[in-house]
Amino acid sequence: MLVQICCSVDSHYFLRKLKEIYPSVRIIGYFYDPNIHPYSEFLLRYDDVKGSAKTLGIEVILGDYELDEWFRFVKGLEDEPEKGERCQKCFDFRMQKTALLAKKLGEKTITTTLLMSPKKSHSQLEKSLSEICAKFNLDFIAPDFRKNGGSKAQFDLAKKDNLYHQNYCGCIYAMQKQNKASLEFELMSSINHQIQPNSPEDRALFYRNLKVLEEQKSKFRLQKDSFINYRLLRALVKFDEKAIKSYFLFNSHFERNLVKFSINYECDEFVKNDIRVFSFDKFQELLGAKFKSFDEFLKKPLSVDEELNLREKICEKGSFSPIIVIEKLVPAKVEIVAFSKIYLDVREILVTF
């Protein structure tokens, strides 16, 4: 039996139930989530699924990340509500890919762990499985394990086994309907590959560390933690109307999206209200480091923790004053265009004991 898998929270319980009901049937997992964004989130969910399935002795095949193909398939249905026509098309898309793989592997039956999700329509999934399997001459099963306390048991098991519980279920269009202020930042990755707090990349590292603690049989618990998070959405510095290379330290927040001032002399540091602009040489001096060039620094920036430690030296702990690094400070009319967000976020932390 080939089982299309969407996430570990759904698959962890669903696969156990399948093994109980079909003890003599070989079960193969197929992680196929082409509608999940960004790619780092897709990989994080796959890693957790793979770890969960390993405890059951189930192989998991990683499907292709076919986001562009998925977008084309659901085009025109962006404004459909959850459990509407877009979801039906999405199920058809995934079940067809599952059926194609089943035929290739010589499997006769398919199903999906989406049947476990309380946010998905069981009847839509059953319709998709029925029509696709008729087309490919396959059998399917569509058990409803959510009934009779199944959903509660599912989430209790996921919590007990420290599975990754994602912040959103579904695609970008579903995410927009959830109206959570922080969800827009789920899609962001830093262009310089800096790992930012509570990003998919950050959560991936967190869960890798968690698995190490589990293997070491360390005692710990997961705990929710509220904190103030930050994202720089867009930033540009112009000298005499010409864009120049620049770097904005983490937590550089702007109340106004456009700031203008003049620098009248060559210097290493310039302060305008709460904004601090440093030359790269001065920045190196403050940092106590020696990058070969400004370009090298831009490609391989500091970690967020390193930037926050430096910020504390320049300002105070908890500061959100803009700190900008440019290659050289020369007399010019300066424009700073910047869009940033400060927001209350919730993350998981490890409490050891």
What are the salient characteristics of this protein?
353 residues; alpha/beta; 5-stranded parallel β-sheet; 11 helices; elongated; tRNA processing; oxidoreductase; metal-binding
Give a concise summary.
The protein is an alpha/beta fold and 353 residues long. The protein has 11 helices and 13 strands. The mean pLDDT is 93.
Please, could you describe this protein's structure?
The chain has 353 residues and is α/β, with parallel strands linked by helices. The chain is 37% helix and 24% strand. It has 11 helices and 13 strands. The strands form 3 sheets. It has a 5-stranded parallel beta sheet with strand order 3-2-1-4-5, with helices on both faces. The chain has a 4-stranded antiparallel beta sheet with strand order 7-6-13-9. Helix 1 (8-21) runs parallel beside helix 2, helix 2 runs parallel beside helix 8 (200-215) and helix 4 packs across helix 5 (122-136). The longest helix is centred in the first third of the chain and has 21 residues, at 85-105. The chain is elongated, with a radius of gyration of 25 Å. The model has no long low-confidence stretch (mean pLDDT 93).
